[in-house]
Amino acid sequence: MNTPPSLDALIDAASVIPVLAVKRLEDAAPLAMALAAGGLKVIELTLRTDVALDAMKAMQDAAPELIVGMGTIRTPEQARASAEAGASFLVSPGLTPELGEAMLATGLACLPGVATAGEAMASQAQGFEVLKFFPAEPAGGIAYLKALEGPLPDIRFCPTGSISREKAPDYLALTNVVCVGGSWIASPGDIDAGNWTAITANARAAEAMKGR
Ligand SMILES: O=C(O)C(=O)C[C@H](O)[C@H](O)COP(=O)(O)O
């Protein structure tokens, strides 16, 4: 197992983070290789499917250069199980005090989800430095993130939720955004159909947005 990255190393390696749901374990290895072939380094696998933890291991074995984190973490038990299974970082759609404690206790880099100024302040007070802004587009998108920057200039975000390939560069251009998440790089349809070449092309396009 690779050493998990620090939060700084994680956001340094990430630009667009593909948010993945793997339903069939046999898709995990070719998916990992397709994403790595496009040059992406950081991916988020969601805990939405029964095979998620096994799929994470299969992805790490198939493409050891990838930093594979676990997303859709909702309970302290899921945080602990994901860390024990070898997740390199943890992502949640929202945050409860109990979940925050469990996430911090893993020692892994964590991106807890928030959608409001109050949630962002509570997360920062609990010790989190970079927050997932979720669901980014329905919660107010770019205008909302710009409005948060005045009162909360020290909080950085990874917006995720309905962010298209076309909109991703506009999010990445915001000074309080360090990376964005999106399912468009490897959509459920492309994974189901085994469209690995298309996924590699999408990964390459996503990686090319880095530094914009
Ligand atoms: O599963 C989670 O933990 C979530 O928070 C939801 C995901 O971040 C979005 O589903 C990303 O998918 P798109 O909105 O299609 O880009």
Automatic annotation (TrEMBL):
GO MF term (any one): 2-dehydro-3-deoxy-phosphogluconate aldolase activity
Gene3D superfamilies: Aldolase class I
Leading EC class: lyase
Family of this protein: Belongs to the KHG/KDPG aldolase family.
EC numbers: 4.1.2.14
Coiled-coil segments on the chain, per record: none
NCBIfam families for the chain: eda (TIGR01182), PRK05718.1 (NF004325)
SUPFAM superfamilies given in the database record: Aldolase
Top-rank lineage group of the source organism: Bacteria
Membrane spanning residue stretches: none
Pathway: Carbohydrate acid metabolism; 2-dehydro-3-deoxy-D-gluconate degradation; D-glyceraldehyde 3-phosphate and pyruvate from 2-dehydro-3-deoxy-D-gluconate: step 2/2
Catalysed reactions listed for this entry: 2-dehydro-3-deoxy-6-phospho-D-gluconate = D-glyceraldehyde 3-phosphate + pyruvate
UniProt keyword list: Carbohydrate metabolism, Lyase, Schiff base
Protein name in the entry: 2-dehydro-3-deoxy-phosphogluconate aldolase
Keyword match Cell cycle: no
Subunit: Homotrimer.
PROSITE patterns: ALDOLASE_KDPG_KHG_1 (PS00159), ALDOLASE_KDPG_KHG_2 (PS00160)
